[in-house]
Amino acid sequence: MTAARDSFDVLVVGGGHAGAEAAAAAARPGARTGLVTLDPAAVGRMSCNPAIGGIGKGQLAREIDALGGLMGRAADRAGIQFRLLNTSKGRAVQSPRAQCDRAAYETAVRELLAEQGGVEIVAGEAVELLLETGPGDPRRVAGLVLADGRRLRAGAVVLTTGTFLEGVLHSGLEQQPGGRVGEGAATPLGEALRRLGLPTGRLKTGTPPRLAADSVDLGACQEQPGDPEPVLFSFLGGRPRLPQRSCWLTRTTPRTHEIVRANLDRAPMYAGRIRGAGPRYCPSLEDKVVRFADREAHVVFLEPEGVDSPLLYANGISTSLPAAVQQEFVRTIPGLERARIVQPGYAVEYTFVRPRALRRSLAVRGLDGLWLAGQICGTSGYEEAAGQGLLAGLNAALWLDGREPFVLGRHEAYLGVMVDDLVVSDPAEPYRMFTSRAEHRLLLRHDTADRRLTPRGAAIGAVGEERLARLWAKEERLARARAELAARSDPAAAPGGRRSLLDLLRSQRPDALARVRAAAPDLDRLLAGGEEWATLEADVRYEGYLARQEAWVARAAEREAAVLPENFDFAAVRGLRREAVECLERFRPETLGHAGRLAGVSPADLALLEVALRAGARPTG
Amino acid sequence: MASRTADPIVAPATPVGPAERCVLRLSGAGLADDGGGLLPPDWPRPRGRREAVAGRIEWAPGCRVEAALLVFPGPGSATGEDVLELHLPGCAPVVDAVLARLYAAGARPAEPGEFTRRAFRAGRIDLVQAEAVLDLVSARTAAGARAAAALLAGRPGDRVREAREVLAAALAQLEAGLDFEEGDAQDLRPDEIEPLLAAAADALAAGLAHEDRRRLRRGPPRILLLGRPNAGKTTLFRRLTGVEALVSDRAGTTRDRLEALWRPDDVEEGWILIDGPGRGGAAADPRDAAARARAEAEDGAPADLVWLVADASDPAGRPPEPPAGAPALVVWTKNDLPRRVPEAAVAARGEPAVWIAAERGEGLTELARLSRRLLDEVEELRLARAGASERHRQALRAAAEAVDRARGLRAAGLPADLAAEELRAALLALAELAGELTPEDLLDRIFARFCIGK
Prior knowledge:
The complex is a heterodimer.
Chain A: E1 7-13, H1 17-27, E2 33-37, E3 51-53, H2 57-66, H3 71-78, E4 79-85, E5 95-100, H4 102-116, E6 119-123, E7 126-133, E8 139-146, E9 151-159, E10 168-171, E11 174-177, H5 187-195, E12 200-206, E13 210-212, E14 222-224, E15 247-251, H6 254-262, H7 285-291, E16 299-304, E17 311-315, H8 323-330, E18 341-343, E19 347-353, E20 370-372, H9 382-400, H10 414-423, H11 449-459, H12 465-487, H13 501-506, H14 512-519, H15 523-526, H16 529-541, H17 543-561, H18 578-587, H19 592-597, H20 603-617
Parallel strand pairs in A: 1-2, 1-9, 2-6, 9-20
Antiparallel strand pairs in A: 3-5, 4-5, 7-8, 8-9, 10-11, 10-19, 12-19, 13-17, 13-18, 14-15, 15-16, 16-17
Helix pairs in contact in A: 1-4, 1-9, 2-9, 2-11, 3-4, 6-8, 11-12, 12-16
Chain B: E1 9-12, E2 19-28, E3 51-60, E4 63-72, E5 82-90, H1 92-104, E6 108-109, H2 114-121, H3 127-152, H4 155-179, E7 185-186, H5 193-216, E8 222-227, H6 233-241, E9 258-262, E10 271-275, H7 286-298, E11 305-311, E12 328-333, H8 343-347, E13 353-355, H9 364-411, H10 416-434, H11 439-449, E14 451-452
Parallel strand pairs in B: 1-6, 8-10, 8-11, 11-12, 12-13
Antiparallel strand pairs in B: 1-2, 2-5, 3-4, 4-5, 7-14, 9-10
Helix pairs in contact in B: 2-3, 3-9, 4-5, 4-10, 4-11, 5-9, 9-10
């Protein structure tokens, strides 16, 4: 198979969640984009669990959608169970989640890419970056060399190699190169990146076994149905397309744990075969049994892989024990006594580039023309990968046009928190989003992603008119409803007391929203459903807190806006401690705000740095 | 750099405590114009021009004090912004009440070096000046940190750390519940949260009470006399203060720590001299050992200056090592007797030295002059400490209020995201005193405690 062309504006390597978003985001403002993948039929594939969203991640998925990305729409098309999580814990931490039909999801991603246009899929393995050095210019990336010898030229390259970069699959003590079971690995590229001087490391992740659905006794499990009124991801609206399904819960038993313990010497993590660090938030069953030895049971979620899929995904028992041991322990779990494993769980170890090598645009520092996104930056998760992909692809296209990078602040989006965290950290485990990472969490509700991001995306041509028009229409409805509520009295207010329905809504009473809706049924026709009521309620209730968080943001704004030039000489700053200089040189923060978030920089260091910076920016006199 | 709207900051420019007056300095945009909304209507008010306005301030219902307001409109002021100086009587409760009004109206305590940074940014001082001041601030911050460490070494500091620990534990519980679904996070014990918050509230109240006591104790500079037994400390002490202590030639005679005022010429306020049991030799009897232990414990509220007293007529006379945290000078006593201490022992010491004969009154003027010079330097540090203490109190108060609100939200059965917000605010307020709790720290706690994840 040969590509129709061999010259692109932007080339994306990898067709997973990061790669698909990167290609789409680069193409949206008009860059001629190529997506290089080992297997065109696997573009958009869910390697791990068939679900999008969840706490923290659902917010990311909606932010991606608000910026015109694919993920939200694909999940809406492929969703077979929608749940809003954390409903009892406050609007600020509520997160949508969708169980997806695995096949329908990847199909939806490919369809959405095709519908959008502008992205050419190229089958092949990238093994080398084409470098160019102009006269007096620093070296820059000018394209790719493929394994079959083809040379593709491009102004910008985005690498989204996922678990494929020098990927090694572990199943028991057996190992083989690969990024996903049954697929190859990108081994030469890892060496190529190290030759360029990029700092790399190893991380690992794992998957649980997949079970034959007809061998599982769901009657012995607890059913977990979807929400009756599903909250979707995309701000473009719509309804679930596929028939809806339930998930199921069961639990491991002491006997399960005995079997795992008895076979730990055959687990690659414990036998010392895997050196990469695994995530603490998604531990293997081996880890759970060792670290929480006194627990008698761990929850197992049985998730359907599709509407009619013959497979169940056994979430919660990620493992890399030998297949025979997996089969043995699975059958000690209620409901799984006769379960057949169709695909045993396995662990995968892969190379990542330490994200301190990146700017906040996700461009590699000191090497023009190269962007990274997804697991190659040390993250984990579809949503984290897709979010970075979108930002990297968009920034590559903007850079080619000579425009400013698109960088989001920590107070603007979880996307901003993620990128900001990455470039000042040296991850010891794959980075995953949690709402607790966002100090301005109350500002970052899932239902306000469009309000926060769509206008910003539209301003740089990354988001179409339709999304903006929908947003303004929604804001107008919310404003009208609010004005109506302020003008109407609460019929249940104490005699002589004057309280508006808006006051009632603000009152933090648990039943406030229900009472307001009952008192103003006509507004149900104005607002588009329960979701907009929820937005209105949260806007009103959190007002005081939002003002406080915004005041914090305003205070920090000056430091966040103070850019440290890339060639800034930290060692020349008078009075700066040696440790601080070393830390600053290692991470080369882009702004003073950034410098302040480095673990090795004290407030006194920051004050000295600020004075030195401003002295440089001002004519001496 | 273009000047931005600067939020108003305030800090005492003189130590808070018994003194003739205390100056509170404010800087911010729009302050010269009627106070920028910070000053209550009955206070002296700025009228947009450089001037001094006298008036009275009602600091508590029915209680008024004389106050003066000095107005320095920007950009000709020290920081380039509008600067106000509020001159008040140096009385802690008055200053407290006034500060509380200013905080409530939207001023916040200045960070270390913040006036200087603003001055530099506005071009009012040059880089060399800014660096010089920031060096000092950095030294002051270090000195303040040492002072805080000394202060926190005792029980009150433990209470602050305890508050931080229990708040962090409570927040980890809350956050684990927010960041993981039921089933994803096991072992959550939400019923543990309220007792933790109650413990945090108690600890913060205790910490605040301690800070209040500490600042009220401030007064004239304190000079600690240290020296081996019979080095001549007590003779000197008696000569300067007129206060008698039991003195004999037997080592270890002075049993109790004595404090008395010395008023050299030109020192209006006077200095407090602190005499204690001799140290450096073995305790002559058990009672003396007990007194010494007590005196050493009390050294936790340290002096501003230390006199290292040594006998110049004794061939083995050596001044003691100076304690950390205060400047010291060496006082060689019995200078009327033949000097037997070797020159090398004298030259080996880096501190300034004075030679006296206390019985005859020789060298005392020089002792006063040198002490005064060192105490002037210390005064700079006292200023820094006053600022630090003010920030500590503000931090403890803010944390206590946030914990109260969190408990109220929980008691009302409201969703956990707001309570978590309050606990984060409380921990943020305590960051300067007890260390910052980063999101990574929080996640470490969550992962260490709870079995998380699918």
